[in-house]
Design brief:
The protein is α/β, with parallel strands linked by helices. It contains eight helices and five strands; from the N terminus they run H-E-E-H-H-E-H-E-H-E-H-H-H. A five-stranded mixed β-sheet has the order 1-2-3-4-5. A hairpin with a 4-residue loop joins strand 1 and strand 2. The longest helix has 16 residues.
């Protein structure tokens, strides 16, 4: 879990960003901790999802706010609430990402650039397809859309991303802002 992740990041000299994607019938979004209190609040929301059928993460965020964590979502109802710390998810691997970006701009909701990473190099895409075919017990040729990630779900350096998505400077800037404000010392155990 989280402790091993943080330990491994420290070993590699990487500053971890602590968060989770939460999906249930009421909500789909990323929750990113800004501090230990935010991590605790996210943990409580995740526990609510697992312990209480019908737990409504969106309602909890609307009711209590997101003071110590960021919310990145495509949920138009939540985005329309214009809550502090709530951002529009602009996932460029989605075919309709420009609709999400347009919605955010029209509603004056801060957009965040998201480009999920599922494999390191573009050459790893064939291996990814093979593993997904094995997982779904299908031939490579019969994999349906959504059963494997896009070939673009690989690492791209910042310059490449900035060049390709220069028309979304606000979303790129907000991604950097969230990354910067989500850096904190994760406390493990008692001193």
């Amino acid at each position: 879990g989280i402790v091993r992740f943080v330990q491994r990041c420290r070993e590699e000299g990487i500053q971890p960003i602590i968060g989770a994607r939460v999906r249930n019938t009421h909500f789909d979004g990323l929750l990113i901790a800004q501090n230990m209190r935010g991590y605790s609040q996210i943990s409580s929301l995740i526990s609510g999802v697992h312990l209480h059928e019908g737990f409504d993460v969106k309602r909890e965020i609307i009711k209590k706010g997101a003071k110590n964590f960021f919310v990145i979502t495509r949920d138009r109802d939540l985005l329309s609430e214009k809550r502090k710390g709530v951002f529009a998810e602009i996932n460029v691997l989605r075919r309709d990402y420009m609709q999400d970006y347009s919605f955010a701009r029209k509603r004056d909701v801060p957009p965040v650039f998201i480009s999920p990473l599922y494999f390191l190099k573009k050459e790893d895409y064939r291996l990814h397809l093979l593993l997904r075919a094995v997982f779904h017990n299908k031939k490579l040729s019969s994999l349906a859309p959504g059963e494997a990630q896009s070939e673009f779900a690989c690492y791209r350096d910042a310059k490449e991303i900035e060049a390709e998505y220069s028309f979304m400077k606000d979303a790129l800037r907000n991604t950097g802002l969230i990354a910067e404000k989500s850096r904190f010392e994760f406390e493990m155990g008692a001193p």
